[in-house]
Amino acid sequence: MEYTLMHKNVAVAELEIFEDTGTILKTIELMRPEHLPFGIRLTPQGKPETRAINDWWADRAIPSTRQGLRDFLELLHIFSTAELLPKCYGLSLSDQYWVRPSNKPLEWKDVNFFENEFSEDVGNALFGRAADGELDLMSPDNTSDGWLKKKWVVADRKRLLLKGGSGPAYQEPLNEVIASAIMRRLGIAHAPYTLTWDNDQPLSVCEDFITPQTDLVSAWHIRETGKKPGHISEYQHFLARCDALGIPGARESLDRMLAVDYLIVNADRHYNNFGAVRDAETLEWLGLAPIFDCGTSLWYDQYPHMIRPRAEQKSKPFRGKHGEQIELVTDFGWLDFPALRGVDEEYSEILRQSPYIEDNRRDVLCYALRERVAMLERLALSLTAIVSEPENDDEDDWEPEL
After folding, report:
1. Which residues, 6 or more positions from 96, have their beta carbon under 8 angstroms from its beta carbon?
2. pLDDT by residue (tens digit) across 206-219?
3. What is the enclosing helix (H) or strand (E) of 162?
4. Coil, helix or strand at residue 347
């Protein structure tokens, strides 16, 4: 069936999509190449590369790693989540792209999820609570990424993303909240998270920071705009691509992201959970996106006796260890360490809300966070040639039984 790839109200290309699999078979005509999804290259014949546009399209679908996906597919009697994309016109809450069937005179203002109601059937089914009867598939949950259970809802006209955790501690939603608190204290642009509960399980709640006027572009697509020379690092390459594209404030934003990830020992800052925001109409770059998706951190999957805050920790995306990656930060002058005093106590109050976090785990985690703050402060002082050491009182010397 023929569809028009749309960017808001701009007709970008005519496509042929095989609805049984959700696969883009070919590009019939390209009208506005500048409005193609970012990163899709053109062939010498001036058409989008079929593989590239299919990769972009497939990446919009719910990933195969999503918790509970097998039951969801069986419920809908489908083989792949890509089959759901035409059912919701490929609409997302992360950008303004969609596909318009050739036989339906639809307009963006009437179908987009930023300004119109949408079904929660898909999100509820992904959480294992399918409605009776046929599901309404007009939902942004068809185009949500990530492996944890999540769903979009509308509350007070706000588009909110609810995301779960993984057992046995279900710690990721609580980590989102403390990471948000850390960034609030430090004045870092971020997506604020709060906590809610559903069937006795914690869920993080985050308002969509993308608007009807903007697109989120992943760091991966930015990175892939040029081949990395062998003599420069991943970090230098990514910064060079940002500079070449004219993305403002990239270095300063990365400084803040890497510092926060060091503090919370983020284990999964991959190229698809940070990126940049651009204007969907003018295509102007507005800067790197506010920091989001920090749940897989703070030893979320470790037993208490395995938590060692001073030990070297694995990191992504630029270097394999946090102790090495933090050295990429070029300026620590913005870090207000006094603003972080008592952040471990705030974390304790957050953890205390969860029946899945035992007292010993809470004590160890709070001590470990406090130690990470002290480690970063010492590191910042040493790298800025300041010789004075932070104060240590009796309370700071206490370590929980590990």
Report:
1. 7, 8, 108, 112, 212, 214, 215, 280
2. 999 999 999 999 99
3. strand 158-163
4. helix
CA distances, 57 to each of 28, 69, 84, 138 (Å): 16, 19, 11, 17
**What is d(CA 260, CA 372) in angstroms, rounded to the nearest whole number?**
10
Give the pLDDT confidence of 17-59 residue by residue, as tens digits.
998 888 899 999 999 999 999 999 999 988 899 899 999 999 9
Phi, psi of 178 (to 5 degrees): -70, -35
Q: What is the DSSP letter of 226?
A: S
User: Could you tell me the sign of the dihedral formed by the alpha carbons of 138, 140, 142, 143, in that order?
Assistant: positive
- For 62-84, give the secondary structure using H, E and C: CCCCCCCHHHHHHHHCCCCHHHH
* pLDDT averaged over every residue in the chain: 93
Contacts 24+ apart (CB under 8 A), 316-325: 316/266, 316/267, 316/268, 316/269, 316/270, 317/219, 317/234, 317/269, 317/270, 317/271, 318/233, 318/234, 318/235, 318/238, 318/258, 319/234, 319/235, 322/261, 322/262, 322/265, 325/258, 325/261, 325/262
Write out pLDDT tens, residues 148-178: 999 999 999 999 999 999 999 999 999 999 9
Say if CB 334 and CB 183 are below 8 A apart.
Answer: no
Global confidence as pTM: 0.92
Token digits of residue 267: 């284990």
